[in-house]
Structure to design on (98 residues):
């Protein structure tokens, strides 16, 4: 049986990055939401991303759906790890109600 090797995030990122040391994360712009949690009183249909901070991130040149996605993309960019954001898109047929 093969031994399980558990790597820390720091070890993992340096392993797949071309960098030899960790980047200075204090210089990376981080967005911390200052908005209070949204209280959902009833279940309604609509956009699945209506409660996220979707928007164009100028520092990344991408439109991302949440602060989490943006911050993770910043980490990958800091480590110079190439990534594709949503390289595959699936179309689902929508049955319209009359």
């Amino acid at each position: 049986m093969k031994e399980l090797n558990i790597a820390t995030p720091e070890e993992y990122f340096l392993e797949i990055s071309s960098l030899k040391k960790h980047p200075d994360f204090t210089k990376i712009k981080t967005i911390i939401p200052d908005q209070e949690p949204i209280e959902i009183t009833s279940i309604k249909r609509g956009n699945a991303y209506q409660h996220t901070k979707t928007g164009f991130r100028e520092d990344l040149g991408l439109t991302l759906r949440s602060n989490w996605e943006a911050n993770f993309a910043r980490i990958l960019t800091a480590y110079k790890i190439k990534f594709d954001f949503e390289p595959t898109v699936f179309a689902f047929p929508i049955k319209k109600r009359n």
